[in-house]
Design a protein that fits this description.
The protein has about 325 residues and is an alpha/beta fold. Helices cover about 45% and strands about 15% of the residues. An eight-stranded mixed beta sheet has the order 5-4-3-6-7-8-9-10. Helix 2 packs across helix 3, helix 3 packs antiparallel against helix 4 and helix 8 crosses helix 10. The radius of gyration is 20 Å and the shape is globular. The structure holds 3-hydroxybutanoyl-coenzyme A. 3-hydroxybutanoyl-coenzyme A (3HC) binds next to helix 3, helix 8 and helix 10.
Length: about 325
Amino acid sequence: MASLFRCTASKLPSTQFLRHSSLGKNLAVVSSFFSSSSSHNAIRNVTVIGSGLMGAGIAQVAAATNHQVTMVDQTNAILTKSLRSIEKSLGKVAKKKFKDDPEGEKQFVTDTMSRIHIATEPTTNIAETDLLIEAIVENMRTKHKLFTELDKAASSHTIFASNTSSLPIGEIASITKRKDRFGGLHFFNPVPLMKLVEVIRIPETTDETFDALFQFSKELGKVPVSCKDTPGFIVNRLLVPYIMESIRMLERGDASAKDIDTAMKLGAGYPMGPLELADYVGLDTTKFIIDGWHEKYPDVPLFNPSEIMNDLVARNKLGRKTGEGFYKYD
Ligand code: 3HC
């Protein structure tokens, strides 16, 4: 993924490895902290490529459960921002975990942060990585470029996983020579709170690989479910058409956005209504998923695009992250 990660704002040589000692202040070059796993299947060292909402969340929960994590993104500025959001989220988690124990709370955050190492080069520390989780842009060509490079550099024992929301895992894995050690690990937003992980296997995924991914998800304190490599796996195959139906309801003028959301929260017990949830996930993400499925399955009406959503995305009203989507946010 040369274009995405190598040409960074950092002036440090690409082989150097950065560790934050105090968020953004002292990015010091250090040598490797990592020791190879002694047991064949044990996952100790994790690399997360992409430090957006999902990548940062995955890095956070892995580090909080005693894994050494290398979090990779294009620039140190992006990584520093992600570290800040991880620290903020950890603070909230620690408050609940260590009620009436401020020392324990502080220690948990410090210890977890110390296990997250940042790098702008995807192959940094790759030789020691037991599990590599990709959480970059949903573009097949970009993912292929990244995995081609990583496949050459990684140790033969390293398992590769993608956190894609809707792209076929088999197609992502197809350019690697380790389809037997490839699977999907699909997390949910917000990662620190959502208990589910979908573990996706392709026909070539060995039982050993699948078991390691399943076990790793459990170690994170999550509940894994087994999925086949079908569009949207389990959750998004149900959730995205549901969100799209709620948008079509709005388009037809059947009900207001607020009433649709209130109805589903109070009538079905969902924590968020579908339009609130679309804003939370991001309208660009939702549009990307539905457009991809519509292109592949044009005869499935549930996958039809929506004019309102296309218009909001065109005007950069992507939901919470840009301050406006179906609703306005402060
Ligand atoms: N990290 C740590 N703690 C967090 C947090 C975060 N990122 N976000 C919220 N919290 C904490 C809050 O501090 C609060 O703590 P408190 O109880 O001590 O006050 C607690 O969680 C509850 O938060 P809020 O009061 O702000 O709001 P809610 O009670 O509504 O909970 C929610 C927030 C968990 C996001 C809940 O609304 C929810 O479950 N929503 C549905 C989310 C969902 O469906 N996600 C899946 C999206 S689909 C997806 O991700 C797949 C992808 O491929 C598209």
